[in-house]
Automatic annotation (TrEMBL):
Keyword Hydrolase set for record: yes
Native organism: Citrus sinensis (Sweet orange)
Keywords in alphabetical order: Hydrolase
GO molecular function: deaminase activity
Protein name (Swiss-Prot/TrEMBL): Amidohydrolase-related domain-containing protein
CDD domains: ATZ_TRZ_like
Keyword Hydrolase appears in the UniProt entry: yes
Domain Amidohydrolase-related: 77-453
């Protein structure tokens, strides 16, 4: 049945989920290697994958007889789902508890006491809330940066319909740890001895991998995590490195966030600069490492990251609040894959990858004045920023064979953007408008794995009544 509803609706005014579906009459921004844009494009989806993409007329002619549903997007923009490569879902309930403080105060006095007291239900609710905000900004896949109760995160991700790389917050030494965390050993973090009874709430990383990797129809992957080098022994670093190689998965780690971190590493690890220099020394830098923030690195260390194939998650809002200017232009020139992250709610307050695109462009243009004494409006142009939020994000989470661009054979992770509502009108250049003008209000529908997780700005969780229950629990707790 042909549909004509604005916003990608069915004949009753809403999008639907079908095993075969055509979306047509759309401006399709593919983000593929050729950066193709179809001004009047169509895509044929079979179950969870894109079967074909091209001009609307061609797609309709070839596949309309096979489609269970045909949706006219009425010249709206169809994009790959955005990938948020650094977010702490456990921290959503802590939004606003650590504003306007330095990083070590933020960690030791505000966030770690909060996280260490989280219950399993807290983690579940927190991940649901975070996921709802992510979906509204067009995110279909995220990389958890390290949190509590990963099994509850997985439960929430499965319900929301998103794609995620989940990581447990992992530390085995160092200052500032709450009492319940300080007793954890390296063995507990990696794989505890099954013959010994431990009273720890968190599972080991191997246990979590065995339980949840490829869960939720393959939408969940388990990565291994290092919270930060100041709270990790050399043994934890090395065994995590080797374990990730063995299981063919990724490692997510906060790297070179502040000068103090580099100084601690120089003092304790006896290297001449900081975290990246030491990680290179122990052969921790690998192409499966997602290095978050990575603000305080020098030219030599940028070279080390590039040669190892390390991916970097740039978090503009979080960096501006507590960390500083990351040398993103230099990283990109060194062929480092740089993506975008929001970080957690207490270090940003906004879980919007749309906002991060806007900020990434502006602060990196502004950094040129600070660094070189002259302006460079071409620093981090719009198309580069859009790639950071899509295909670079997919590469950063080691999922680019399936997501990050709209191409035949890839997963049907897509975002419908309405360019006709007030923030984006008029549109003279679609790519620049997506980065400089788009707001979360323009994101109208989101598909992940061939299923609509938001349609016409309504999260499907709400339609199942779960959001009302969530709201009631929050009101009772606060």
């Amino acid at each position: 049945m042909e549909t004509n509803s604005s916003g990608g609706g069915s004949s009753s005014g809403s999008l639907g989920s079908s095993s075969t579906m055509i979306l047509h009459n759309a401006v399709i921004v593919t983000m593929d290697k050729e950066s193709r844009v179809f001004r009047n494009g169509g895509v044929f989806v079979v179950q969870d994958r894109i079967k074909a993409i091209g001009q609307s007329a061609d797609i309709l002619q070839q596949f309309s007889q096979m489609a269970d549903q045909i949706i006219d997007l009425q010249s709206q923009i169809l994009l790959p789902g955005f990938v948020n490569t650094h977010v702490h879902t456990s921290q959503q309930l802590a939004k606003g508890i650590a504003d306007d403080v330095d990083l070590m105060t933020w960690l030791h006095d505000r966030i770690w006491p909060y996280e260490s007291n989280m219950t399993e239900e807290d983690s579940y609710i927190s991940t649901l809330l975070c996921g709802i905000e992510l979906i509204h900004s067009g995110v279909t896949c995220f990389a958890e940066a390290g949190g509590q109760h990963v099994s509850e995160m997985a439960k929430a991700v499965e319900l929301l319909g998103l794609r995620a790389c989940l990581v447990q917050s992992t530390m085995d030494c160092g200052e500032g740890l709450p009492a319940s965390w300080a007793v954890r050993t390296t063995d507990d973090c990696i794989q505890p001895d099954s013959s010994i009874s431990f009273n720890f709430v968190s599972s080991s990383q191997k246990e979590l991998y065995a339980k949840h990797h490829h869960a939720a129809d393959g939408r969940i992957r388990i990565w291994f995590g290092i919270r930060q080098i100041m709270n990790a022994t050399d043994r934890l670093l090395l065994e995590t490195r080797d374990m990730a190689r063995e299981f063919k998965t990724g490692i997510h780690m906060h790297v070179a966030e502040i000068p103090y971190e580099n100084q601690v590493v120089m003092d304790t690890r006896k290297v001449d600069h900081g975290t990246v220099t030491f990680l290179d020394k122990i052969e921790f830098l690998q192409n499966n490492l997602l290095s978050a923030h990575t603000v305080w690195v020098n030219h030599t260390e940028i070279g080390l990251l590039s040669r190892a194939g390390v991916k970097v998650s740039h978090c503009p809002a979080s960096a501006m609040r507590m960390l500083g200017f990351a040398p993103i232009k230099e990283m990109l020139h060194a062929d480092i894959c740089v993506s975008l992250g929001t970080d957690g709610a207490p270090s940003n307050n906004r879980m919007s990858i749309v906002d991060e695109m806007y900020l990434a462009s502006l602060i990196n243009k502004g950094r040129e004045v600070f660094a070189n004494g002259t302006t460079d409006p071409a620093a981090l142009p719009a198309e580069t920023v859009l790639r950071m939020a899509t295909i670079n994000g997919a590469k950063s989470v080691l999922w680019d064979n399936d997501i990050g661009s709209l191409e035949a054979g890839k997963k049907a992770d897509m975002v419908v953007v309405d360019p006709f509502s007030w923030p984006m009108v008029p549109v003279h250049d679609r790519i620049t408008s997506l980065v400089y003008c788009m707001r979360t209000e323009n994101v109208v529908s989101v598909m992940c794995n061939g299923q609509w997780v938001m349609k016409n700005k309504k999260i499907l969780l709400l339609m199942r009544g779960r959001l009302f229950q969530l709201q009631d629990k929050l009101l009772m707790n606060f």
